[in-house]
Structures
1.
Amino acid sequence: MRSDIVVLSVAFGYLALLFLIAAWGDRRAEQGRSLIGSPNVYALSIAVYCTAWTFYGSVGRAAQFGPSFLLIYLGPTLAMLMAPFLIRKMVRIASAQRITSIADFISARYGKSSGLGALVALIALIGITPYIALQLKAITVTHAVLVNYPDAGDLRLADEPFWLDKSFWVALVLAVFIILFGTRHLDASERHEGMVAAIAFESLVKLIAFLSVGIFTVFVLFQGPGDLFARVAATPELAARLGLDAVPGGATGWAGMLVLAFLAFLTLPRQFQVLVVENVDERHLARASWLFPLYLLAINLFVIPIAMAGLLLMGDADPDRFVLTLPLSADLEGLPLLVFIGGLSAATSMVIVETIALSTMVSNQLIMPLLLRTRRLHRSASGELAGWLLGIRRVAIVLILLLGYLYHALVGDAYSLVTIGLVSFAAACQFAPAMLIGMYWRGAHHRGAALGLIAGTLVWAWTLLIPGFAQSGWLDATFLEQGPFGIVWLRPYALFGLEGWDIYTHSLLWSLTANLGLLVGVSLFSRQSPLEQTQAALFAEAMHPNLLETSLWHGQTTRGELRTLLDRYLGTGTTARVFADTEPQTSDAEQPATPAQIARAEQALSGALGNASARVLINSVVRGEALDLESILSILDTTSETLEINRRLEQKSSELALASEELRAANERLRELDRLKDEFVAMVSHELRTPLTSIRAFAEILRDSDNLPEEKRVHFLDVVVKESQRLSRLIEEILDLARLESGRLTLHPQSLDLVALVRHSVDAVHHMQADRGVALEVVIEPEQAPVIGDPDRLEQVIINLLDNAGKFADQEDARVRLSLLPHKRHYRLMVEDNGPGIGEEERERVFEKFHQIQRADAAPDSRHGRPRGSGLGLPISRGIVAHLGGRLWVEEAPHLGGACLIMELPEAPPEPG
Amino acid sequence: MLSVPRRRERLLALIILAALLFTPPLVLVPDRAMAISWLPLYLFIAWGLIIGLTAWLMESPSTRKPPRE
């Protein structure tokens, strides 16, 4: 079953299936029922991150370096967590600027600089081609293993002519696929629907294939994970590979690898392609931010079990091939084939997307700018250049694949799978400073970005690429140990004497330091051109709404000229779309083009040719002040300034609203107090006048009537005395209140026994209460209640409370209950009555000055023995108690059902000695 | 209703949590705790936890924006 014919027909049959899926995806897109308009498909397409390197190499890395392989996936997990902040901004910028690749992105940010774009494209080409070679190598090797098992496959590889190498034919088929589905539109910023659908499908296939091997290994070769890990634990040298000690560079290497994977995930050209360029809807990011990490977790779940099983069962065989050799060793037929297809999926999906991304960069950033310099191009016929452009891109695709194949055929054998992958990662990381800092810092300058990129790439080449060549035996490897020309501090793996680090972290540290340092340092001392300022602002402020609506063009050109330009480069179809708002009349050729039309024309050109070339072309037909940069800059600045001012204004106005609300409340209170005061003054005058009137009346009678009977005279005098007492009590209260208010109330605190004081006060009022028909019940729990207080004032308070209770007790059967009990290092004096009680909302107001409760059941002649209060007793009492460190408040009476006033005083500290 | 700023704060906290869980010195704990390193198991559990929390944060209906149109 594993014969060459079967394997080949399955493999190429699978590729044919990809063609069908891609064609179907494109058909659906044309009908307007997009297959890829789903967040799940988007998340699956991001899984192009998992290449053949993941599929085969993870197990190899786990077998050698323990859990460090997981870092390659934890980094992207962190990056996807940040997707709602970071990638959303990238997507928004890319769709506004019609970005076609990461090179285009960086070039657009730094003033549409064509040089910078070319630099990025060149670095990507150098750094990523080996990675494509790696995928082709994986296909060749696994095919050989599959067909020749148990013989080692790769021995024969070097002797074979290339037409017998399967990966050559796979590469050729892929070239056809990419040309068919990757260059359908001239506009590279448009989505490749069919291709994305095929990639998502391939992601599913490789996941299923890998999980199948994992389940087979754990549950068929072993009796479950418990059995497997029990055997691992019994083998110390295997158990040692599970820990951090197996990770190169230890904790530093760990952190370095995490950063490397995090940055590479954002900057690898194929990741930029699927994450940003192929994003249909930025809301898909929310789903992808967890679904893609979940995919990574699933595909890595069985890596360690497979690696450990391979080490246990296969001994020292190449761990990169365990995924395939484990099922082969069990004499299975179907599973190895499924694994091969899974690996093929992983390899082809990566090659497809990477080649599209690279070919776009090569055609738009490297070749187009060169072609635009030759004048001859401007005179060509309509639509001709559109064909040229697609032709360039197609040739680029074939060349890139060929380059990858050559690299694989010539160099590939020297490198192990993982090494190439990480070297490519480190190369892609060099784009990170220019891209990420450019998105947030408006001051980043294109010269700084270019110098940083060059320096970072040189350091990368010196610390990773060239030593790799040396270790493959291409170069004399002595400089690794002794440094070039014997200069020790230039040793590639220990630059400036930094030893003991793993080579990737070491390279990343020095290259990013050089890159970042130059980017920031040079930018701080450079002045940006107006165009770069504008672009920087458009990138940094991309999340502002309505920012990109403004039209950039203020120069003059005719519609005819613009139309001819677009015709030449994009063909008549696109031109018609750009001018969709005006009827295509020949007579309007001399009409001036509107700024919106010029902007649309530039966007259309950007999508096809890249930002830098589009600008050159538009400048060639637009005369005069081509771009009103000053005004756009001022609009941008005003926008951010206005937003800031708005924010501050909003804050201020809410503060104002709050303050005015407080003022209103205070005013309300003041009015209420004023009203109370007026009432009080009226009441006081009345209260003062009543006793005064009777004193005067009785005094007049006594003066005028000489012959009054003795008993009458005594009675009258008695009345006069009583009324004077009442008068003086009232005046005393008013004075007390005045002192309390002004803080001049003097108290004489001393230790005293509250029990004795209460008994004394009760004795004082008992008689009077009994006279009024009030039944007084006294309950005193503690034997002693030491407190600190002014005895006279406290007595005044207690009497006042009892007096009040008597006044408000039930008319017919008046009962008052006084109780004293300890409560948490305090003493509580409670005075209850059986009156109507005090409503919840009234409870605090009774302590307000001048406030008097209206008794609902008060008889109109409330004078029979129960004098009305002045409304000052409770406020004064509360003032006194507060001065003594206690509290006074109202609750519902627990026993008698009326109101209950509670006075709480802290227990006095024990007397010293 | 969960307001959008609150979601941003939660996501930020989640990012910080993930960064802490995945880096030394926290990864040293399961590595050194026993005779055999529990690091792989710890990593998968922490990873699953972060994914679960992100899914909960991103998919809870109150935080999702209403669909366009």
2.
Amino acid sequence: MFGAFRPTQPSMVGLLWKTPWKLSRTRKANVRSRLKQVDSVIEAVKESGVQCAALTKALELPKEHEMPPKDKYTVFSRHVRGYRKGIHKVPKWTRMTLRTNPKGF
Amino acid sequence: MLPLASLRSCASSSARAQLRAFASAAPPSSTSAAESEPLTHFRITLRRSAISLPKNIKGTLVALGLHRRLQTVYHRHTPDIAGKILTVKELVSVANVPASAVRNKLEQRLERKAPRGYVVTGSKLHAEP
């Protein structure tokens, strides 16, 4: 019943990792703080007065406070019913830019 | 002071204290010194590692001179540096600083270091009979 050899799903069937289908309140708070951190980087580069194509592209991204919750915590996926999946299903999602949706979604 | 201190021969204790003040309180001092000194440099600190990220992002960090987390480098305000920062914007934190706040690796280490030796503030031997 208990102990290291208890018959659980991961021990019985081999490779079985479960990912929660949605983010917890804490993980969502961490998402928001990361988004704000990136916003501050873009803001610092903007305040430096430098002009470059990368900056105009970065300024087109929505800021954290402009994004709807749907875009903060989910991403577009063409394979999922409803075309949205949790953003935490994307590999390396904490270090990628995933702010915008394809046109029409 | 010991002869080792001749490395920074001009660094008398007051100048050292000023340096420390710059290092510890750079954001407030940059706002107060903004009128006198123009902000000319980016201070870039690597916050997140680029492990298992694409080669172009890892290469960008190398180009910025960042090779370990929490390392800080200074670069002039130029479009190429701005583009590199924006390529790795999820991994770094950036501030604009004046030219006087720029520190190389050795200076950063000296600022981190505790001061050598000790100061005698008083003695109880001859305090009072």
3.
Amino acid sequence: MSDQLLIIAGLSAGTEDKPILHNIDLTVGAGETHVLMGPNGAGKSTLGHVIMGDPIYQVTDGTITFDGQDVTDLGADKRSLAGIFLSYQAPVEVPGVPLYSFLRTICQMRPELKTTARKFRERVGKIADQLDIDQNFLTRELNVGFSGGEKKKIEMLQLLLLRPKLAILDETDSGLDVDALSIVSRGIEAYRKECDGALLMITHNTRILERLTVDRTHVMVHGNLVADGPASLIDDIDAHGFARFEDALAEKAEA
Amino acid sequence: MATQIITADQTDTLALSHVNVPPAQTWNYLRINDIAFDVPTPHFVGDVYARLPQLFGKLECGIGDEAVSWMEHASGDARYVEVRASEPQTVYVDIDSSKTEVHDTGVLVRAGASATIVTCAHGEQGGTSSSLLRVIAERDARVSIVEIVACGEGQQHLDAIGIEAAEGARIEMRQYALGGAKVALGLCCNLAGASSRFVLDTRYLAVGSDVLDVNHVVRQRGRSTRADIVTTGILADAARKTMRETIDLIHGAKFAEGSEIETVLVTGDDVVNKTLPVILCDEEDVAGNHGASIGAISPEQLDFMRSRGLSEDEAERLFVRAMFDDAVIHANGAETRTAVLNRAETVLGADVARDMAEVLGFDTEEA
Amino acid sequence: MAETTDTTRKKSQVADINRSLYDFKMSEEGYERYADGLSTDIVRAISDKKDEPEWMLELRLKALAAYEEMEMPANWGPSIEMLDLNHISAYVSPKTKQASSWDDVPEDIKNTFERLGIPEAERESLAGVGAQYDSEIVYHNMREEVADQGVIYTTIEDALHDPELEPIVHEYFGTLIPMRDHKFAALHYAVWSGGSFVYVPEGVTLPYPLQSYFRLNAQGAGQFEHTLIIVEPGADLHFIEGCSAPKYYEANLHAGAVELFVKDHAKLRYSTIENWSKNMFNLNTKRATVGADSIMEWVSGSFGSHVSYLYPTTFLQGARSSCEFTGITFAGATQDLDTGCKVILNGPDTTASVDTKSISKDGGINTFRSSIVVGRRADRACATVSCASLMLDDISRSDTIPAMDVRNGSASVGHEATIGRISDDTILYLMSRGCSEGEARTMVVNGFADPVSKELPMEYAIEMNNLIKLEMEGAIG
């Protein structure tokens, strides 16, 4: 199992007053691409945030092991430094902090990325070009007044800059127009190629998956992982929806 | 143009007892209604001054008549600039606080003209410096003002700005208070003409036992005027800050809108943080809004930054650096940038200051 | 009599209300009325009449000296130039003894309170009632089962004559509002008369509110009642205060004082519906100190008076104590109302939440004034202030002057204020559904006031809606 990057075992979690995730088992190998699908409100985003260590959620049972280390009780900052990245559905606005200051600070935290200011500038410039991000964004305040598409691009910029071992992309494709979607897809491809990182895609949109080689597909219903399958499962869901998974879960509950 | 008003042997001081008095005051025991300054008594050499055109004398400057009168006398001389539509101009006012300079500047921006005005007070030690800037923006003028106060320890600085905007004029201003032992910023913008607009972005950082005292006043007289004031500040150690912000929606200012928002990050245990955000409203069909939040970084922001690898302490440090970065980005001129970077060096250390200059690409620049 | 009952009943219907509900005068004939103005003689005469302990007389005389010496702040607040203390009588008393049955209250005074609906409310929903007419309490009564639990609800005068209560009054009276707090606090202590003394013993929860009603009938007079409430640990009280007066053409003055002591794990809700007439100068002082894990709630509706200076103050001294302030102020023609609140957060983990509304119309002036002070020891204290102002025309005025002084790095303080008008779209929408413009506007204003009225007991919420309707009727020609 040592080649597994992320091992989630028997994980249950929720908010203070409401359990959301039930007994989740999930493994992602280094460099693999996984897709997590499920109807709205199934708990997919919650799983992403729990893996990241969002303090809104409490783990009530089970463990999360990342890169050989039990991270269940680690704060989000430590998990980030260990190589987990979560792209936010709605990235937070941070007035008073120019994007440049933010990017420089989060890079300098990491020994593997620490570099001279000049090289840093070159790297940021290159990635910004790759994602069609205007250079003047770099002097603007982080996410303040950015459109939805711009915010997502800035998330991709951070993904490519930080080169994490595992990227969890939470509905990165939602609410994007065609152009923005193709840029974001380009970013995901670049991440797979350049960083050779693992990917956990949370989505209902299968279009963004077309250009990716998917290793494994997981289906979540009502906070339970109900199915696991190869890439072809995506086409099946595309055609038939989640109804049969929901029915199966209901039957199981009755039994 | 600027007069050095204090000499080594001069010890007379004058007490300015009511500086930065807001239009509407409140309980005196809160000690929020004004601040007092001891300033050097002006030396007169002869009694002939080059005065600004008299129309500048009518401008309200936020800091109060007592302080304005002192500045006029202490500067002994005034600089007048007229900007015409045919020739956009950038006006620099460089105040060397170490030399205790006092500047009195008047800028008349003619109808349809564009002007950029940069004032920068900086220095390393001792003394009282001051800048009085008055701006008249005629119809449809565009004025961009950057005001930087990057004074050092032991320095006292008074900065006053009076602005009058005629119909359709647009004033965009960035104000940075980055240092000084005792600093007063007074500002009044009179939106006299219909559809005139004022946008103010204020950033402040007060550390050590710095005292920062601010009085922002916007008089909205014209119909459909708009004022947007956004203030972001950081208070560390035992810094003391008083921020007064007044939006005055005067009778007749139909359809006017004014808003002010202040966000303060407090990192010190001995900080005194006073805020008086006032909306005065004497008209029906207007909108006035105010919001303030005082305390730590918001949980959402903190969670987001954590997910990118920053602890709370590191996030706080980032906010301080970001304030200097932002000032460098908007400093508009090599000398001003150098002043900001020098101050950053004092607060954050030489390594960070150098890194800032390099990341932003100003490391090869000669001031 | 039949007509009176009629009026009382109508009070509970929003429609068909008229000003005569509050604006009726009774003859002062045969009353004891002291000479206008202030002097040592008058102060001694009041004290003599009340047969007070020596310490109280001394306190009065000291306060008088302080009053003569102190000045009004010149740099803020509405003008009180019109208020000439030389033409205000500090003490006016109806010739009657305090009664504990309405049948023993003189007919004209009883009629007054009947019209205001007090006896009816007492029967239906109150644990006890006190009624003050000019300078003296004329009626005081409390349900037996409440008295049996050891709850004391009486006047301060009576408490001073009770050997068991006198030391308690002595211990607390004047300690929360110092006489030198401001000029009118000093005046209050010199000539105070009437008011309430409430003591709720440890662990006692009152099932119904207590209510004091203050009626100032005499022209050119002052009312200076003192309310002292002590809520012992674990106890819970809701106290309601109502005030009204008929309209005169010369100034009346109200300078009451309210001192509230809320001990640990206790709760006090203090509700006020104030409808003084528009010749009243209302310079009232209210203050509460709150112990650990305790709750202080203020609900305040200010409709009347010519000039008001009113800022209930809460000291959150104990850890985890909290304060909630919900208020509405309605300023119409000739009114200049400077109202708000002060909260001082001293204990760790204290919380304060202030939510106020103001409505200005017909040239009325509203000033919301507040201060939130977070002390150095108040770790993790949290305060939010929200105030919304509604302008109903372009000759009125509404100012918002909130101050904050925060001295603890872990505290969080938030503030928001909005000033605006009723949107034309809203009015048009309601009119398109068949409301007249007047009805539509009243509806919107009532909706705006709703967060306050829903904090009040039903009868008072109805009274407040009636007051709003009354004020709104003038607005639409």
4.
Amino acid sequence: MNAAQVLNGIALGSLLMVLSSGLAMIYGLRGVTNFAHGALYMVGAYIGYSVARHLDFWLALVLVPLALAAIGVLLEFVFFRPLQNRSHMEVGLVTFGLALIAERVVVLIWGEKTLSLDPPAGFSGTTSLLGVDYPTYRLGIIAIAIVMAAALIVWLRHTRTGLYIRAASQDIETAGIMGVDVNRISLIVVGLGAALAGLAGALAAPYISVDPSMGDKFLITVLIVVVVGGVGSVGGAMAAGMGLGVIQTVVTVWSPSVSVVVPYAALVVVLLWRPRGLAGRRTA
Amino acid sequence: MTVTTAGGVTAAEAVPETRQRSRRGLVIGLGAAVVALAAGLALPYVADTYTMGLAADAALLGLPALGIGFLARHLGLISLGHTAFFGSAAYGFGIAVTQFGWGPMPSVMFGVLAGTAIALLMGVLVVRASGMGFLMLTLALSQALYQLCVQTSFRPLTGAYDGLVIGLGSDTSFLGLSPADLQDPGLFWPVVWVPLAVGLVLVWLVGRSRFGTTLEGIRENEERMRFSGYNTFAPRLAAFVLSGFLASLGGALFALNAAYVSPDVLGFARAGDSLIAAMVGGLGTLVGPLVGTALYVWGEARLNSSANLHLYTGIALIVVLVFLPGGITGTLQRLWKRVKR
Amino acid sequence: MKKTVPTAAIALAISVALAACGSSGGSSTAADSSGADASPIKIALIPPSTGALAQYGADGVKGWEIAAEEVNAAGGVAGHPVELIKKTTDGQSSTTLQAAREAVTRDGARFIGGVMSSTEAAALNAQLAALGALAFNATAKTIDLVGKQCVANSFHIVQTDLMDINALAATLTTMPGTRWAIQAVDYSTGHTAAEAFTKAAEAAGKEIVLQQFAPLNTTDFGSYITKLQDSGADALFAVEYGADGVAFVKQAAQFGLSTQFKTVLGFNMVSEPLFSVLGDGITGYYNNVGYDVSADNELNKKFVAAYTAKYGEAPYYVPADNYLAAMTLFAGIEKAGSIDPEDVRDALNDLTFDSLVGEVTMRGADHQLLRPSYLGQVVQADGGLAFKILDSAPASETTPTPSPDCKL
């Protein structure tokens, strides 16, 4: 085992961390398993690809989260809010339908071909770290993800909005009675969750290729991460995402057959043994 | 996992069906079944080969849909994992033929047995969960099975990504049908129609039985049933295994007809499609999932020329969930009641 | 419950009716194929229109179109005009089979082409006898299609993986590098290639230091690349195609992997449609080439000219092999003097004819078309990247004897 393999795990874990934090926030507040999260990530990658191709990669990292936040707001107004009295299962399945639609719409706009994007200038080579030469861009992803994770936790713990989100995630009705503007909080959370998925997509574009099924490939893993980390717990989801990325990569080196089963085994064990997830019901 | 009731998804009305265990209902029901069975068997005489091919596909996929519907209607459980039983049975059949050199009949039995065994194992793990937890567990376990199936170490057995070609010896026969006959939809039709019709009656009878009442009690309030002295685990497991058995039957017969199995049958896309088809047809009625599956097969043949089938299934799913709770059959049932009133 | 019974009956009737929907006018089966009439030669094309292989599917159809236009302009084949029936699939074998059944039973197609992947081809092979149709396979290269999956009604136009590997073997000794690593897709293509390559490399006095398989649709090759780096290999044999190939090449560049290797030999990895997306980094890569666009014979020049005029770009192996599939079918019909599939099938056995890749023979024992394979190297040309053909090996050198598993 060498340091590069561990870094590979951390890079994958970083992507899972960004993706799962958004999913966990939406789940925590709305109780909805957002099956469209993988699709949001894919759409983010495609928009990021176009922006980076025509304008600039760094601009994509700003514009994509904004665009996805707008999509998130749309989702909130058109689906989550009108359907908030329906069962969570129904709303979850609505997002499943949305994911199917999104995948085809992306194909109609960008085509079927796999697209690939080169890392931005200065990030295309390798950097020496821990005695290995490791791709600079992957180190960049790790850095961005860690900064983002820390910022999110600080924001949730130390701001008024963060407090409201944590309160509403514990018990949305009580929070409403206590005077928290639940609709506004929900709008922020869904918008932010979608923006994070978009950010993950834009970061992934030069990391792995952009293709219409890229969302599907991650969706199940990320759903598992959120459940394992503790339903609705942002911190738990991020820890589980990073943990799964590292464990899976390291186990792949030893035995690929065992590695693919790791997430599923983790889910079964957690759901049966500790149904609230590893972190319980702490939001951040 | 937060417990969510799936009542809104599964039934047109949350109220459990009032049961009239009258002889008259039973006679009418069985009579209708016999008529439907006979009418179905006459189908190859009026429909062309292409139509029969679609009908056979719909019936093959109808068996797992029947299983999904049964679980949803009687236990309120939504499964995204019936591909596991369908696929295991299909692979079981293939492995029996290619590895053990068995004939078609014992191989089909082995396939059904394998799929049902997987249902039993999986059931022990998942039936305690409910709502979204159940859905996630069935999804995860069936996808784990997919992952295992395509592993390099299983290549000799399953063919991994390449799939498994099931070459039946030309001298073998299944209920008098040669391997070539099995691929003629008109001749193959009774092989799948009879199990489907019998399965339908079976599910209907189980629903009317005391066992069915117990299941509905568990669906409405599992805790209350447990406190009333009922063992709630065993009935749920039995229902799950019955549901898995139906899917397995479909899978083994599918492999018999196709003479080829690929990992697609265990995939996420297939799992989603079969659930969506069942929901669009209506999980709240006995035949809703079959209607949805027939519609899906028809759509696959007619609308997929631009590969946009998923665009339409996605839209259909959302429309049904938002505007037509209970799916097509549930909506028709409501309209029918309103007209009668 | 009283209501459920009539509802059930009604809904059941609906579901049966639905399945029967669109069956009207479905009686136009089996084209009258006897006699010397001008009934059309109906060919169903079933390419994937979605997924990673969609582009190849569309290009394969172009090969058939050029062939059809050409013979129709000349009055058809043995007096029969060619009619292409275009279907599509999402690449899943069940959809492909359904499209094939529809084309045969409703549209009267007797010949099938354009089916892309090995899994679809294998599934279709299992049904061909029941359909009474012939299939012409121009893209799926797995050796099993002329081995344990072979059937009398299927003809394998494209080279098998083994033929292509054997074509590389001769040049292997001269390629720089002695310690080779194998990175292959976890598909029969990958396994066949890895096995055959290992034999060839050992015969050439090279050492295999690492062999690893990545699942199809792998997106993150990081851990594989790290293992390659650790292996100490100085040459790489890579079998990763489509999106996987793109991801692997791109990520390998980010890891600076190419500096480690004196030789990168791709197999089914680099092809003309991927040049632009793979970028200049692949200059110098070796790869097997199925079709030589600059082959110096009249039939090829005619095809290249027609193709370029119609589609504004030069053909590569996918359209060319599909065109060759059409040529094979037409040669069989000419010889049989009939468009009945059974007559055509019998006529094709051991038929030798002239084609755009030179003189070829359809081997009767396993229905493999005997044709040359090439080794190319990616070079910078005027219009961007291009293949330079380094070596060509005739079928007599590359093609193994028919598999004992194949009994026609």
